[in-house]
Amino acid sequence: MKLIFVGDPMCSWCYGFGKQLAEVQGGFPELSLDIVVGGVGAGATEPLTLAQREFRLGHWSRVEAASGLPFDREAFKARTGFVYDTEPACRAVVAARLMAPSIDQLSVFRAIQHGFYADGLDITDGAVLADIVAATMTRLGFPTTAEAFLAVWRERETVAATQEDFLQARRWGISSFPALLLEDGSKLYNLVTGFVGAGELRSLIETSVKALAPDATKQRVRYA
Predict the structure, then answer these.
(1) Is the pTM of this model over 0.90?
(2) What are the coiled-coil residue ranges (predicted)?
């Protein structure tokens, strides 16, 4: 059995949920955790309008209230002509996974999120992502350089693997994030769609692991 977190580093509710998941993950050492990136805004080409910027800031306020996580709103407001393309950040998660399959994927995911939301960095920029992820990988025991990471991030195979993640999420019927799945052999169960706190999340995982089967509160999905 393992958990699968489907999310996007530039989804603010995934930022809040990542903290909750990190808090409870240690209580389930028997469950590994994989991440499938969803590409919520992948391929965007138009700069955010003022209305779109304010819409996101509204979500940030709700996530901050629910999670207690920090947000650098001023850096976001000051960034002119910003295209909210989430593909580069998603691809950074995939690149780290390809470089170090056994790495703690959630730590990489959350480091990228922290760079964007708390530090006000532009994580649509490959060089910025390379600095964040190379430092995180090195801290986690997988030493690399920003240059080496950037080379993998740019590879066609990494682009293709990222697109496959997007497709897999959609094959599973997941179009909103975050989502948490439980894989049990050839079966896949949807445990959570949307933000929940650590206490509720812990209870959901405990109940599902013990049952080893879907109940009335879980939606069963099949592999494509």
Answers:
(1) yes
(2) none
